[in-house]
Design a protein that fits this description.
Layout lengths: L20 E7 L7 E9 L4 E7 L2 E11 L2 E5 L5 E8 L2 E8 L4 E9 L17 E7 L7 E9 L5 E7 L2 E2 L3 E5 L3 E7 L4 E9 L2 E7 L6 E7 L22 E5 L5 E5 L7 E7 L4 H17 L4 E9 L4 H15 L5 E6 L2 H7 L11 E6 L4 E6 L9 H15 L3
Parallel strand pairs: 20-21, 21-22
Antiparallel strand pairs: 1-2, 1-8, 2-3, 3-4, 4-5, 5-6, 6-7, 7-8, 9-10, 9-17, 10-11, 11-12, 11-13, 13-14, 14-15, 15-16, 16-17, 18-19, 20-23, 23-24
């Protein structure tokens, strides 16, 4: 593994100028592979907009002019921003995470017509699925699935699925010897670079602010992870779910499970800093509006990077507004697991954000689901169909 050679993946090739399309890079110290994403900058007299593109996902940011040729782009949901300065036709600056108090260098270079983010010799569209393990052979070994599929750009798109969720929309290149996929959503940035040897795969994951993580695995088109409904355990001394927490207006909301008029309540345990939680919230909003007339209720209990309510509430309010959520979002406290355990003593341990629990009209937990496989994965439509089928049966009478 230590002899994995990936230096040739860094080649950008010759660049030429083309409208507003850019190849963008986030660089971090000690990481040999830059994290790249596609971007489009639109400039006119009244507005500068930055579109961040990964596979089928696009995030649009509107710039606020700070000084001449320098703009601030705030992400709509996360507590992060990009600050860019234009020099000639290049943009340089920083991506800053205010929760983690981290900042990383960001460069946008003009993109030639057919340029791709990671050019590989003889790269081609292909489809594959690998069962992989991070930190293999250690006490911290973790299973995952790496999958990729042909993308309309001539590259490949895919995701990495874990027992805690997924890495969302990845895009990159593959050939018979290598695969490299990257993503940037404003909160997290990742690149997965691997060599293929027959049916085996050996690679490294890079992320700014964190150490490299090795992974290895074998091709398995039928690879499965542990059932998400089996991971979160209910405490033996389970009691009725009840809590009183502030909503996005700062008003306390009391929930007493066995005093609800709803047939089923779905409670998602997450955070505004969590991209998987954002994907799940959009999905739950759709489910809520489709089934609320039949007795379904949905509540989000979110845990933030701060234990100060005057900071957390505005973040949650902004998230709720930006995602256009119709169900209530409550502030559960700090993201530390102890805070979640205090609100939900019925659960032995919160393993992942998000975690979904379903509660019947008696206030008892009837179902749990750890993590969320979102629209960047091959499992999203399957999960959507299973959830609707379950609700149809449960709310049929």
């Amino acid at each position: 593994m230590k002899h994995l050679h990936i230096s040739y993946l860094l080649l950008l090739g010759n660049l030429s100028f083309s409208q507003n399309a850019h190849i963008s890079e986030i660089t971090a110290k000690l990481h040999p592979v830059p994290i790249r994403f596609d971007a489009i900058i639109e400039e006119n007299t009244n507005r500068v907009a930055l579109s961040i593109i990964n596979a089928t996902d696009t995030i649009v940011l509107t710039g606020q002019k700070i000084i001449k040729n320098e703009y601030l782009f705030e992400f709509p949901v996360f507590n992060t921003y990009i600050r860019l300065k234009k020099e000639n036709k290049h943009w340089t600056g920083h991506w800053t995470d205010q929760d983690k108090k981290e900042s990383h260098t960001l460069t946008l270079r003009p993109k030639s017509k057919n340029q791709i983010r990671y050019p590989l010799p003889d790269s081609r569209q292909q489809q594959a699925r690998y069962l992989i393990y991070f930190n293999r052979g250690t006490n911290n070994e973790r299973p995952a699935i790496l999958e990729f599929f042909p993308h309309s750009s001539g590259q490949v798109k895919g995701s990495v699925l874990t027992t805690a969720g997924d890495y969302r929309f990845l895009q990159g290149s593959a050939n018979g010897d290598s695969v490299i996929l990257s993503t940037f959503d404003g909160k997290f940035a990742y690149v997965f670079a691997a060599q293929l040897m027959g049916d085996s795969l050996y690679g490294i994951q890079y992320s700014p602010g964190g150490p490299p993580r090795e992974f290895s695995g074998i091709r398995d088109d039928n690879a499965q992870l542990p059932d998400p409904e089996s991971l979160t355990k209910i405490a033996k001394e389970e009691t009725t779910v009840r809590f009183t927490l502030p909503d996005t207006d700062g008003r306390n909301v009391e929930f007493i499970g066995d005093q609800q008029s709803h047939k089923v309540t779905l409670i998602t345990i997450g955070g505004s800093w969590c991209p998987n939680c954002m994907d799940e919230a959009r999905f739950l909003n759709q489910i809520y509006n489709e089934y609320r007339s039949r007795g379904l209720h949905v509540i989000g209990v979110y845990f933030e990077y701060t234990d100060q309510m005057n900071i957390a509430i505005p973040l949650l309010r902004r998230m709720k507004e930006q995602l256009k959520l119709d169900f209530p979002i409550l502030y559960g406290g700090s993201v530390r697991r102890q805070a979640a355990a205090k609100v939900f003593p019925q659960i032995e341990k919160i393993l992942a954000y998000p975690t979904l629990i379903a509660i019947d009209s008696k206030g008892q937990i009837i179902k749990t689901y750890t993590g969320f496989y979102g629209p960047g994965t091959s499992l999203f439509r399957e999960y959507e169909a299973a959830m609707k089928n379950w609700l149809d049966n449960l709310l049929s009478d």
